[in-house]
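Before the break, one more example. Copy the sequence into your notebook; we will annotate it together after we see the structure.
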Amino acid sequence: MNRLGFHYYPDTYHYSQRDVETWLPRLKELGAGWLVLQTPSERALPENFVRSLLEASIEPLLHFPLALEQTYNAQDFEILFKSYARWGVRYVALFDRPNLRRAWGGIAWTQTELVERFIDRYLPLAEACLDANLTPVFPPLEPGGDYWDTSFLKAALESLQRRGKTGLLNKLVLGAYARAGEHPLDWGAGGPERWPGGLPYYTPPDEQDQRGFRIFDWYSAVTRSVLNTPRPIFLFGMDATLGEGQNEKRLAIAQLLNNAPVAGMEAIPETVLGGAFWLLAAPEGHEAQPQAWYQPDGTRLPIVDTLAQTVKNTPKNASPAPGENAKIAHYLLLPSYEWGIPEKYLESIWPYVKKHQPTVGFSIDEAAQAHRITVIGTESDFPEIKLRELRAQGSIVERIEADGMNLATLVGKYI
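Here is what the structure looks like once it is written out:
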């Protein structure tokens, strides 16, 4: 799966079968591997829409732009999260730009311990995601922002670390708004190591900062400073300011995400899972309509034809990716141990095998020949990096993260 994606409509009203038939061909034409969906908290998105994306090897990222002035009970999200996980969804972003004054409203912004209060709101819902076998995405922050975003991120990670949330930190994906704006695409490349004079709230004229497309270099540096290791990052809101040269900037971003070399540009590191352009489409009269690649009257921005032609002319990988012509339709990948497989383990998966009739085996190489792969096992059994390789070649991969103690219970949720 490639790393290029889009934000879908900036509302929650375009998830019908007609929308599937309209947008799937266009997304395929543009080579999309991701789609960020505005997701309501009071109801589920239509299952058919979500599954249609997955079957087309497009990864849905559900973004819940929850209001910070409200409080939320994690139990109210349990059924919703488990349903999405059962359909094959893997990534959920909670909240949006909590480092902005307007996100909090009124007196809440002026109270002390802003980051701690945000983590109090975020943590129960993020842990509910983990319980449902979903990967929580830390909300993208406003670059710069009323509370400087790199300072907010550092304080948030330190708070989670101080609270002993190692399990969450090991799974967490960071969100980042990667807007090029009027800057060149390499603005801030190299992060604070290359631009040590770029300080919170002040960037000297001869320095650069994180407020550009290369924001991921800065977030990775923050993460390493707290956790001693980077975390995966997803890029939201990718775009360039409308005007001269924006078509070339967008095409260069697309090429970089697809690992194609761009003259004068550093490659995007593998820690970046993907990125979503702002914006695929918007309703007539919406404030975001001028930024949409496809307009309500049927016209489209020049980048649409440019990117579609680039995708069409890009040579396909010599080794065919799993898809409709995959040798195996569905593979159930199990861990193997030197001492063998306990009988209770096999008994636990039998109802799943009986219902779904997958090919059952213990080989990642054999699983790589399948269109859909269900993995049973923990990180120590099958490292996430190996599963990413399977997804990168086009397979739909879901993990049931179970060990011998809770296997029967967790597998039962997928029957």
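The radius of gyration is 22 Å. Residues 318-324 have pLDDT under 50 and may be disordered. Try to locate both features in your own notes.
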